[in-house]
């Protein structure tokens, strides 16, 4: 699947549905747009609808013998299962998506999947596995020199380590995430990290610095 060549889907769910109904998209774009519709549906509390869109996307990918597109479908399926509370299925789909992306050395997508699977591990109280996944994502972010992915992962790993009562390590990660976001001029993401860091300090009674 040539993701770069596929038309970018609209951000509005109504426009997405309308475009998919018209049926004028090529196969690659249709798969990409179905996956995006599935994600948006899941975030709106319509995970079951999202899974229907994913099913169509995966069937198209298989018919087109497009393994990378199938990985995209599995990635979207993982998010749908996460939002419907089936975290074990979310983990299974994430692992399958990761393996699919790995076959094409799509490290950016692999990093995203690792953050997703970590969130599911946290939900089933498997913080040690979440940490392993997130440290894998840190490695990918550093390899890609993707400082935004690095900051996002540092923030998520900070939350995970805080839950594991490893407060000093967590605080250092939040600090690093803030530094990265400021250097990237991503100020809109700073409040979320500050909130997470503040929650950590409440847990461990460390004064806010």
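^ Assign residues to that structure.
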């Amino acid at each position: 699947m040539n993701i770069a060549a596929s038309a970018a889907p609209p951000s509005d769910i109504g426009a997405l549905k309308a475009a998919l109904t018209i049926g004028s998209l090529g196969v690659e774009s249709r798969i990409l747009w179905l996956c995006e519709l599935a994600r948006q549906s899941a975030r709106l509390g319509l995970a079951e609808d999202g899974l229907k869109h994913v099913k169509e996307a995966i069937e198209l990918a298989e018919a087109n013998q497009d393994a990378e597109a199938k990985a995209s479908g599995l990635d979207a399926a993982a998010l749908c299962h996460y939002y419907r509370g089936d975290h074990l299925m979310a983990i299974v789909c994430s692992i399958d998506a990761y393996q699919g992306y790995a076959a094409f050395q799509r490290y950016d997508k692999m990093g995203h999947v690792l953050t997703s699977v970590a969130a599911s591990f946290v939900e089933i109280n498997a913080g040690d596995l979440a940490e392993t996944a997130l440290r894998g994502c840190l490695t990918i972010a550093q390899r890609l020199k993707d400082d935004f992915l690095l900051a996002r992962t540092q923030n998520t790993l900070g939350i995970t380590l805080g839950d594991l009562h490893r407060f000093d390590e967590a605080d250092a990660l939040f600090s690093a995430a803030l530094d990265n976001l400021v250097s990237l001029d991503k100020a809109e993401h700073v409040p979320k990290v500050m909130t997470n860091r503040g929650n950590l300090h409440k847990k461990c009674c460390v004064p806010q610095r």
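The two ends are 47 Å apart (CA to CA).
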